[in-house]
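TASK: fixed-backbone design
INPUT:
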């Protein structure tokens, strides 16, 4: 009974600790996927921003031939490969998104090649502005390429938004489960405490009853020994005299 009294709350504690450890692990995993998707979307927006900056900078340079306009273009040249590399690493476990990143990378390289060709064309124009029809041709071609690239980026981000929504739903479910587990663990702990107190009370009652019986038996033995006429010798199992 003493072992049971100790075992009940101990088992409740071990069970609660195990349940909380597992639930915390699932919450950490779900939160990790949410953070992962947020990072993918952040890199995607950084990629689009860099492309738009490069596009705007090149057009400004083509119109004004002012090299200060090219600063965002050169910054984009440095940042875009980093964004693409990060996206490849982040979506490596998603085959469809990984394929979309490869397509976006190809279109990005094509767009940067076109922009670089436009800059070279402006540089070869002997510091004279490009003719309006030629500039319109470059801009029209760039718009077609950029619209296609942006369309693929939109599809890519829509899939990530869908994943983000699903993963946030999973995270909220895990948080609800751990809240439910708190109440269940509290209920089990209270039940275990009641059982332990009941068993402890029963154990104490049994011990008092046995002590009373032992005292009565010992008293009876003493009375018998004190009043018997014959001599009484009590030996232990080894044959030694005890009384």
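OUTPUT:
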């Amino acid at each position: 009974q003493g072992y049971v009294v100790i075992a009940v709350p101990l088992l409740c504690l071990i069970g609660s600790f195990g349940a909380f450890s597992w639930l915390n692990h699932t919450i950490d995993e779900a939160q990790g996927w949410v953070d992962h998707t947020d990072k993918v979307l952040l890199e995607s927006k950084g990629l689009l921003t860099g492309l738009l900056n490069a596009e705007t900078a090149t057009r400004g340079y083509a119109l004004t031939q002012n090299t200060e306009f090219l600063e965002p273009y050169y910054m984009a040249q440095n940042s875009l490969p980093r964004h693409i590399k990060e996206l490849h690493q982040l979506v490596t476990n998603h085959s469809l998104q990984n394929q979309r990143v490869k397509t976006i990378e190809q279109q990005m390289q094509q767009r940067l090649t076109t922009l670089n060709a436009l800059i070279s064309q402006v540089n070869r124009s002997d510091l004279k502005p490009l003719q309006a029809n030629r500039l319109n041709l470059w801009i029209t071609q760039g718009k077609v390429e950029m619209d296609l690239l942006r369309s693929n980026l939109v599809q890519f981000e829509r899939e990530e938004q869908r994943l983000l929504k699903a993963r946030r739903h999973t995270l909220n479910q895990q948080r609800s489960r751990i809240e439910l587990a708190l109440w269940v663990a509290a209920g089990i702990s209270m039940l275990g405490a009641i059982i332990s107190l009941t068993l402890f009370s029963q154990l104490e009652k049994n011990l008092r009853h046995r002590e009373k019986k032992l005292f009565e038996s010992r008293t009876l033995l003493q009375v018998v020994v004190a009043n018997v006429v014959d001599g009484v010798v009590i030996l232990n199992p080894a044959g030694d005299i005890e009384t």
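COMMENT: Helices lie at 2-64, 71-90, 95-123, 132-227.
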